């Protein structure tokens, strides 16, 4: 029996389609939702009592917040992304978003921007056996995007333990699948095309794999006649002149998320060359709204 459910979790729309091996689809839907909500409450920065919020609340006090094995694994992965991106991937840059309006205009003064930059930097997060702490008052970290990818992977593992052979978990820009659809059709994900009088849709096959999109060309920043994505540099606080959107299909969602997150923080040519070395399927939209990559429409 195939069960379907739509819910709101992580502040986003989530769709679950699960075919249980023992006509237990509804039971599996409930277990999947419980796992998603567990991780939301545990890690999301907008949850007042989450582990991340606790770290943010005691920033600069010298107090450590204890980390369990799951939390340490997630923080270790964020550190690897920070290292692989030459420190451009930085979950402490969330503060910088407050300096820009919804349409991408800089609303902070240069002195305000510099003041924030002085308390930004993943290297200012200390992790020891006692736990984690942030160096300076006012600092904060935000792992929400990473947690979403991790969460759908966790649901996939949960379902595989119950011998599920067909499922799709779609959490906004993060998707994971098991096998194919119950009727044997391919799992397909629609991606908007940036050019043309009519909006075209690229239909990407995502069977037994993870899909992630990072960046949104439709919400780009326009500055001095040029397009920029909303990735902000931890060095100067300004938009990074990189790819506007990156889509990656990989063996799991966390891998896809990491690749896409790093790629959109590199310069365009460097990002595409780097994606080619990873052995994943990808599509990127550059600042001229052209599509590139193995998954780009032909």
UniProtKB/TrEMBL annotation:
Q: Which EC numbers does the record give? A: 2.7.1.180
Query: Tell me, what is one Gene Ontology molecular-function annotation carried by this entry?
Result: transferase activity
Organism's domain of life?
A: Bacteria
Q: Would I find Protein biosynthesis among this entry's keywords? A: no
Q: Which cofactor does it need?
A: Mg(2+)
Q: What class of enzyme is it?
A: transferase
InterPro entries assigned: ApbE, ApbE-like_sf
Catalytic reactions on record: L-threonyl-[protein] + FAD = FMN-L-threonyl-[protein] + AMP + H(+)
PANTHER family on file? FAD:PROTEIN FMN TRANSFERASE, THIAMINE BIOSYNTHESIS LIPOPROTEIN APBE
What's the protein here called? FAD:protein FMN transferase
């Amino acid at each position: 029996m195939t069960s379907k459910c739509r819910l709101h979790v992580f502040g986003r729309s989530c769709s679950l389609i699960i075919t249980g091996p023992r006509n237990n689809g509804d039971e599996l839907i409930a277990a999947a939702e419980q796992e998603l909500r567990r991780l939301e409450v545990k890690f999301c920065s907008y949850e007042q009592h989450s582990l991340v919020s606790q770290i943010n609340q005691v920033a600069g006090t010298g107090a450590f917040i204890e980390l369990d094995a799951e939390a340490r694994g997630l923080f270790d992965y964020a550190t690897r992304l920070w290292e692989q991106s030459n420190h451009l991937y930085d979950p402490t840059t969330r503060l910088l978003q407050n300096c820009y309006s919804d349409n991408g205009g800089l609303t902070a003064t240069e002195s305000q921007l510099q003041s924030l930059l002085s308390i930004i930097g993943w290297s200012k997060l200390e992790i020891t056996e006692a736990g984690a702490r942030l160096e300076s008052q006012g600092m904060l970290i935000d792992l929400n995007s990473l947690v979403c990818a991790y969460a759908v992977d966790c649901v996939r593992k949960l379902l595989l333990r119950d011998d599920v052979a067909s499922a799709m978990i779609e959490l906004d820009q993060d998707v994971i699948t098991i096998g194919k659809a119950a009727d044997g059709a391919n799992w397909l994900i629609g991606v908007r095309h940036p050019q043309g009088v009519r909006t075209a849709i690229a239909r990407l096959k995502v069977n037994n794999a993870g899909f992630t999109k990072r960046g949104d060309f439709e919400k780009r920043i326009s500055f001095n006649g040029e397009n920029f994505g909303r990735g902000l540099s931890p060095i100067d606080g300004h938009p990074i002149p990189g790819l506007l959107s990156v889509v990656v299909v990989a063996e799991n969602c966390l891998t896809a998320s990491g690749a896409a997150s790093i790629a959109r923080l590199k310069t365009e040519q460097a990002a595409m060359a780097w994606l080619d070395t990873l052995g994943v399927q990808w599509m990127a939209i550059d600042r001229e709204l052209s599509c590139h990559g193995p998954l780009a429409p032909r």
